Structures are given as structure tokens and as C-alpha cells.
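Figure 3 (text version): C-alpha cells given as input.
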């Protein structure tokens, strides 16, 4: 039987384990700090633990869980995608994206008026895009992960381990993670308990202490889970992959719309805002001639009227299994202008890591 992954254990579980081994309970906090504050990745690295305990931990616990197989860096060196092998032979990918250069912010087709800045200038960020499943059951037609089908849920520890891998890498560069988006492979709300357990572990003030408001969870619109998330009143950001303003179009792209139509999804979103007072984000992949038209923008604005929200639009990233292509620069900015004229805030997001298939909707794997 394989050794349990230490990242699957919360502080209480490690405390119980230490007690069962005849160790004082305070050893658990020493281990916790070593894992999440010092980024130790083997039992031998804990200098404040007795040798006998280090040896027992090395024999009884797995400190790796996910094995990095290879990584790819984008041509501009701002994006790194890592392929990880899971213990059962499945694979996942996770991505590090570096932001901060003013050139990172996409420019409109015409110059900005004097004195008008661009969102994100002067704020260096190190964002992780983390996977919650191997494959995905949602089947979104333009998503490479959806095209590969569902393999299995990740454990909370396998989700945490992706973050710690990159936290360790950035620590070696005298840098740190600034944002974590659960937008990698898989549907986070399909793996709700493990996803939220991972967030709680990373948020723990005695451990990694990563602020709740620096997490974003993205869902295709699983209505019961949106309402559960609302009832829990978390400070974690919520994003909804919408992509269309009418059911026929959305159902042609997102099969989940057969189960939860747009009205049901937006009703759940309004419930979320009412319960939490927090703004919700709608993700919108701009596809040329499909959902990037002025008519679509006006229909979307009407749908979202009165809802505390923000639209995050990004030109479609290419995948082998979908023939649609990205919107034009001019159409994207026209879409944004029409939403903003209707009082709906909108950002055109920069495409990242397209040359290494590390952009939104592109994560799959090939060995």
C-alpha cells in the first residue's frame, strides 16, 4: 500500500499521527511550518526534528505525490507549463504566469486618451493556474481538457502539491506566488470537497497563509455547488464560464447547459452576490463570428443588468479539437465598449503561453 501523501493531511491529522507515533503534539506544528513556510520537500530537510522521527517520516509518508516530468517555457519566458505524473500513471498540467511589464496589458486598436492608464501596470504578479482533476467530464467543445474526457478527481494534497512546487521554484528566485486560479485541468466544483479543502490548507494562517481573496475558483455553472459556495460565505473569488447569452448557443459549446440553463446559472449567481456581497466574474472566450458580435454584447449586457459583476473576455485559444478561431482585436474592443456603455465592467485579458499550449482551455497532456 502506498505511503499517504503528506499534503493530504491537515494540521489536525498530522497532530493525531504524531500522537499515535508517541511524539509530542507540538511536532505537528514544526512539520506544518516546515512544509508550508520553509517549503521542505523531504523528511531529511527538517533540522528541528529528531533523526528517528525524520527516518520514520521518510518511510511512512510521501513528500512528493506528483512527479514533475518536464516543463516548457514560452518564447517570452513569462509562462512555464509543467507536466506532472500522478502515482497511478495519469498526468496533469499546471502553469506559472508572470505579469508586471506594462507591455503585458493588451492595447486597444486606437491609443488611449491622455492620462488613461491600463489595468495591471506596475503591479508584478506571479499567478498559478492549478488543476483539480485529471481530464474533465464537462466536455466543453473548445477546451482541450474537455476534449480528452474525465480520468479522475485529484486529492486535496495533489492540488496543494502543484502550488508548493511553484512556490518552491519562486522562492529560489526570491519571488513568491501572488494569485492562484483554479482554472487548470478539470471542473473545480465537480471535485468540490477536495478543491475547497486544498484552499483551506493553503489559507491556514499557521502554514502557507495565502489570502482567500487571492484565490479564484472557476466553474462552468454547477448550480448546486454555486449555492453551497454562497452559503459558506467564503472570501474566495468566483468566476463563471458563460461564453454565450442564449441557451441554444451556450448548449452547443458547453453541454452542461442542458442540465443548468443560463437562467438557472444567473439565478444562482444573484444568490451568491446577495449572500456574500462579493462581485462575480464571467469568463467569455471571444470566438470570431460566434459570440464576439455587437448583438451578443448587447444581449449579454441585458442578461447581466443589475448584477454586481465583471466580464473577463479573452480571445479564444486554439485547440486541435475545435475549428473556431479567435476574435479580431477590433471586435474584442468593440465588445468591451458596448458592455461598458451598458454599465457592465469588462476587461480584455491577455493571452498567455499560446506557443506552448498553456493558455486557457489548452491544458491536456502528451508524453
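Below: residues designed for each position.
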Amino acid at each position: 500500500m502506498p505511503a499517504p501523501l503528506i499534503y493530504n493531511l491537515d494540521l489536525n491529522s498530522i497532530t493525531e499521527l504524531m500522537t499515535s507515533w508517541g511524539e509530542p503534539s507540538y511536532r505537528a506544528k514544526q512539520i506544518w511550518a516546515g512544509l508550508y513556510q520553509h517549503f521542505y520537500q523531504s523528511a531529511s530537510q527538517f533540522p528541528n526534528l529528531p533523526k528517528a522521527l525524520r527516518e520514520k517520516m521518510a518511510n511512512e509518508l510521501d513528500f512528493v505525490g506528483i512527479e514533475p516530468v518536464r516543463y516548457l517555457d514560452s518564447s517570452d519566458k513569462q509562462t512555464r507549463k509543467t507536466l506532472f505524473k500522478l502515482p497511478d500513471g495519469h498526468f496533469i498540467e499546471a502553469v506559472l504566469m508572470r505579469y508586471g511589464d506594462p507591455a503585458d496589458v493588451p492595447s486597444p486598436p486606437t491609443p488611449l486618451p491622455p492620462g488613461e492608464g491600463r489595468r495591471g501596470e506596475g503591479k508584478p504578479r506571479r499567478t498559478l493556474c492549478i488543476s483539480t482533476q485529471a481530464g474533465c467530464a464537462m466536455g466543453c467543445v473548445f477546451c482541450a481538457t474537455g476534449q480528452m474526457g474525465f480520468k479522475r478527481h485529484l486529492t486535496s494534497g495533489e492540488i496543494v502539491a502543484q502550488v508548493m512546487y511553484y512556490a518552491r521554484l519562486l522562492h529560489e528566485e526570491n519571488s513568491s506566488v501572488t494569485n492562484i486560479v483554479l482554472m487548470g485541468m478539470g471542473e473545480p466544483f465537480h471535485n468540490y470537497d477536495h478543491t475547497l479543502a486544498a484552499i483551506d490548507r493553503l489559507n491556514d494562517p499557521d502554514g502557507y497563509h495565502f489570502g482567500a481573496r487571492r484565490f479564484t475558483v472557476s466553474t462552468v455553472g454547477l448550480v448546486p455547488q454555486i449555492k453551497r459556495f454562497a452559503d459558506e460565505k467564503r472570501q474566495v473569488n468566483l468566476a463563471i464560464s458563460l461564453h454565450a447569452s442564449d441557451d441554444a448557443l451556450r448548449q452547443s459549446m458547453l453541454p452542461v447547459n442542458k442540465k443548468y440553463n443560463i437562467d438557472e446559472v444567473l439565478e444562482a449567481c444573484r444568490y451568491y452576490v446577495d449572500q456574500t456581497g462579493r462581485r462575480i466574474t464571467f469568463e467569455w472566450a471571444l470566438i470570431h463570428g460566434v459570440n464576439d458580435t455587437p448583438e451578443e454584447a448587447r444581449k449579454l449586457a441585458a442578461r447581466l443588468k443589475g448584477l454586481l459583476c465583471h466580464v473577463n473576455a479573452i480571445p479564444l485559444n486554439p485547440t486541435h479539437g475545435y475549428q473556431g478561431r479567435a476574435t479580431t482585436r477590433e471586435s474584442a474592443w468593440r465588445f468591451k465598449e458596448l458592455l461598458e456603455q451598458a454599465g457592465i465592467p469588462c476587461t480584455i485579458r491577455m493571452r498567455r503561453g499560446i506557443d506552448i499550449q498553456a493558455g486557457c482551455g489548452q491544458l491536456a497532456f502528451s508524453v
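The chain has two domains: 6-60, 67-356.
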